[in-house]
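User: Please predict the structure of the protein below. I'd like the answer in C-alpha cell form so I can feed it into my own downstream comparison script.

Assistant: Understood. Taking the following sequence of 225 residues as input:
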Amino acid sequence: MPNARIYLSIIIALLIGIFFYFDLQQLLTLDNLKSQQETIVTYRNDHPLLATAIYAIVYIAVTGLSLPGATILTLAGGAVFGLLWGTLIVSFASSIGATLAFLAARFLFRDAVNAKFNLHLKEIDTGIARDGAFYLFTLRLVPLVPFFVINLVMGLTVLKTRTFYWVSQIGMLAGTLVYVNAGTQLAKIESLSGILSPALVGSFALIGVFPIIAKKIVEYFPHAQ
C-alpha cells in the first residue's frame, strides 16, 4: 500500500508538472477559446464522436488533477456542443473528475491526516456521516469555495463515494447550465467575472441552504411536542 501511494503521487506530480512546464494553461484561456472556436467547431462537425471523447477526457483530467481551466472548458462545452449536449457532457465529466480527485485525496492523505488529527477528524466525520450530503450540496451550489478544494477536503472524510458523486452531479448542475449557456454566447463574454451575478449566487445559496433548514425543522418538531 505505501508503494502504491508513492507511485500514484509520482504519476500525479508528473502530470501536473507536464501541464505547467509546457505552459498548457495558456490553451485554457478565454481569448484562446474565442480565437479557436471556429476551428474546434469544424473539427467537431467532421469527427463528432472523437471530438466528444477528447473533450470529455481532457475535462476529466483537468478536474481530476485539480488543474486550472475547468471554467473555460465548461464555456467551451456550450460554444462547441450547444446547451443540451454541452450540459450533459460537462455534467458527467465534471462529476467523474471530481470523484477521481476525491478518491486520490482519500487514498493518499486520509490515513496520515487521521493519524495526526484523530480526535478532530472523528468530530468532523460524525457530522459528515449525519449531514454530509446536505453540506456538500450547499457547497456545490454556492461557488464561493473552489470546487477542487471541496473535492480534496471531502476525500479526507468518511463521506461515501457514491454519495459524493450523485450529490456533486446534482449540486453542480445549476452552475453547469449557467456556464454552458454562457458558452453558447461566447462572443459576448468579455470576462469570466461577469457570468455569475450576485443575485444569481444568492439564489443558489438559498436553494442550497433550504434542505439543511428543512431537515433541522423536521428534527426540531418531534422534541417540541
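That's the full C-alpha cell string. The two ends are 52 Å apart (CA to CA).
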